[in-house]
Structure formats: structure tokens, C-alpha cells
Amino acid sequence: MKKIILFSLTFLLALAQPVKAELTKPIDLLNAMMEAHKNRHYELHYILQHGENIKSMKYHHAVESNQEFAQLLSLDNAYETIVLRNNTISYLGFSFTPFSLKGGQILDDLPAVFHANFNELTHYNFIPLGKSRVADRIANMIKIVPSDNTRFSYTLWIDEENYLLLKSELHDEQNALLEQFRVIEQRIIDQFDNLVPRLNTMLLPPVNSQFHTENRPLAWQVSWLPTGFKLISSSHQVIASEQLQTEVVESQLYSDGLSTFTVYLRTQGDEIFNNQFARQEKLILFTHLVGNRELVVIGDIPMPVAEKVAQSVVLPQ
To answer: What's the pTM value of the predicted model, to 2 decimals?
Structure first.
């Protein structure tokens, strides 16, 4: 009888607990994922694959006083780590001179969907694909399909319980796999996290002063853009070399809220690089000469789009 009573009490208490409403709409799941990555304390061990190149990484994220702190650590080969602190991104490693740049997000070796604003992605469709299992966790699958052939598609696996991204795949316009992100182990940290005090006491390099950047309108224009892409920023950089020589590099950054590309214009060009394509991991590089100046388009966009953007650049008379 006592067992029956205890079982009944346990059952009634369970019924009395508030039940977490399950998100079913793709846009709600995507927004929940964005909020989770921005506001939760967590640690992810994951694999990032580009073709035959596979990296194993650890990403640790925390928030204190509405400010994000993060550390991205490469777990293979030479020690390399990226630190986010006080809206500054610091790059540390044994194979290069450490440096820091101003910025509020770590973009290297993380999927672009980590930082996307899905409410602004008007040129994509969000398609639910049911549930699956990744890293021993139940995940909701969502396909992000572009409305035209000027950008790439994503497939996402989002943790059903905490909404962190468990897996993502980036495919080009021919459905070839460009990038796979896959979590091996995750750890949610709801109590005191030692990341913030550790990063606050870490000696980090000053912001790189090797080049001077000015955000200002530029004289040259990109006259054709894929639908939905907007100018995010433009800059005028004076880069100093070790030989005390300087070179002017101007750039314009464009984005549709998920896909991005940058157009660089250098003061000098070389004919052998005219109309040359290259691919570096998920990024397309297209080099084009405009007069005697070299123009380079770099981004996660199809090759024909990069070429059309480059050939639309108009220099001042």
C-alpha cells in the first residue's frame, strides 16, 4: 500500500511540473538556436570537415554582464586558440605572431548559422525534416533552402532540449558538400563557469596596429549584387610591410544575413591572376583586373556569382 501511495504522489508531482512547450515551427527553432548560442554557458567538442581536411575543435562560451566571452581551441597539431573578450578577438599560437582585432564574434571554424538573424533571411525557405539523433541527443532537422541559385543551402540538426546546434552541412548549388560541423560532446554549464575569470586574467596581444583601417564610403562601386545582399561595411586600409613599404587595400563587405562575400581592391595587379578561380575550404576566390588594379572577391557564394560581382565593379573616371 505504501508503494502505491508513493507512486501516486510521485505521479501527481510529475503532473504538477510545468511542461516545456515543444517548438515546432522552423523559424521558432532557428531563433531559439540563435538565442541559445548567444546567451547560454556551454562547451562543445566538435569536428569540422572541408573535403578531406578534418579538424577537431573545442568551443567554450559564457556570458557575464551582458557581454560574451568565448574560446575556440584547435585540438590537433600546433597549439592555436582564438579568444573573445571585451569585443576583441585575439589569435594565439606557436606558429604565428599573436595579434588582436576588434570584433564581437568568433567567425573562424564555426558555421555561419551560429550568428545568423533568421528573421531577416527573406531569400531562404525553412523546411522541417523531422527528428534524428546526433551525439546521443535527439535533434530537430531543418533545411535552409535559398530561393535562387546565388547562394548555398544548409541542413541543420538542432538539439531538441537546449536548442544548441549539433550538426550542420553546407551544400553548394550542385548539392556538393562544402562543410560539415558535427558535435561529438556537449556540456551545458548552468552554474559558475571558470571561463570568464580565466579569460579576464589572460594576457592578450594589443589590437593589431600593422594596418590602419578607416570605415568610409569608397569611390568605386559594385553595380550588380545578388538579390537580398546589402553593403554591410566598407574600409580603406593602409598596410605596412616589414620593408616599411605601404599598400592601399580597399574593401566592401556584403551579406544577405547568412551568406557573405567581400570585394577587395588593391593598388597593383598582375596579369597572370586575371579571371582566376580558387577554392579555399568553403570560400570561393575570384581574381579580376580592373585597369591596372587587382580586384578579389572572396565569400561563400557560387563561382558564377563571384565572377559577375567582380566584372560589375565600376572605377571612378
So the answer is: 0.85
